[in-house]
Each structure stands twice: as structure tokens, then as C-alpha cells.
Amino acid sequence: MMDHQHIADALKARMAQLSERVERLEEDLRQPLDRDFAEQATGTEASDANEALEGASRAEIAQIRAALGRIEDGTYGICVTCGESIAPARLEALPFAQHCIDCARGR
Predict the structure, then answer these.
(1) pLDDT (tens digit, 9 = 90+) per residue, 64-87?
(2) Distance in angstroms (rounded) separating the CA atoms of residues 3 and 74
(3) CA-to-CA distance for 33 and 4, rounded, in angstroms?
(4) Which of 20, 23, 74, 107 might form a disulfide with 1, Cβ 3.0–4.6 angstroms?
(5) Sign (positive/negative) of CA torsion 59, 61, 62, 64?
(6) From CA 101, how far away is CA 92, in angstroms rounded?
(7) DSSP state for residue 57 in the 8-state scheme
(8) C-alpha–C-alpha distance, residues 14 and 67, integer Å
């Protein structure tokens, strides 16, 4: 198994950042709406954006956890669809990639 500790460390750091973001977004979403109707509209719009950001952050956290699992079990860098190696440039750009570029295009 190759040593992917530096990748795991970077993924863990990113996951910590995302977890903090999710906590802040959840706190913002728990805030009551303003009594003023115009302010409520603005608050609702901001809440919608925060919910989208929270969802995207949670999805990335899930992908990072899966990548950390693949590092742990020695399958990191192997396409989960075809079993071929994922190009190092792809992993550098998207460290939690689970598909080679050919399989990703086919999805």
C-alpha cells in the first residue's frame, strides 16, 4: 500500500473546515425570522442559500469520509467502477475522486 498520509491529513483538515461551516450554517438557520415582512423575505432567501451550502458541505464531508476509508483499506486511487488506477492529476484536483476520468465521463 502506498503512503497516502499527506492526502489523509489534507482531507481531514478540509473535513474540519467543512464541519465548522456546517455548524455556523446550522446556527444561522436556527435564528428566528425578523418581524418585518421585507426582512423576512431577505431572511428566507438567505436561509435557502444557507441550506444549499449546508447540503453541499455535508455531501463533501461524506465524500471525504469515503476517501479516508479507501485510504485506510488500501483501495485509494483505484476506480470503484472499473478497478483501474485513477490518474494522479485527477486525485490532486479532486482528492476524494472514486472514479477514473473515463468512468466519471460515463456516469
Answers:
(1) 999 999 999 999 999 999 999 999
(2) 9
(3) 46
(4) 74
(5) positive
(6) 13
(7) H
(8) 12
Collapsed DSSP state (helix, strand, coil) of residue 104: helix
C-beta of residue 74 within 8 angstroms of C-beta of residue 1: yes
Identify the residue whose cell numbers are 455535508: 58
Pick from 81, 78, 85: nearest CA to 104:
81
Q: What is the pLDDT of residue 1?
A: 44
| Integer Cα distance of 68 and 95 in angstroms | 10
Length of the chain: 107
What pTM was computed for the model? 0.76
The whole-angstrom separation of Cα 47 and Cα 68 is 31
How many CB atoms lie under 10 A from the CB of residue 55? Answer: 12
d(CA 42, CA 14): 30
- Which phi and psi (to 5°) does residue 85 adopt? -70, 145
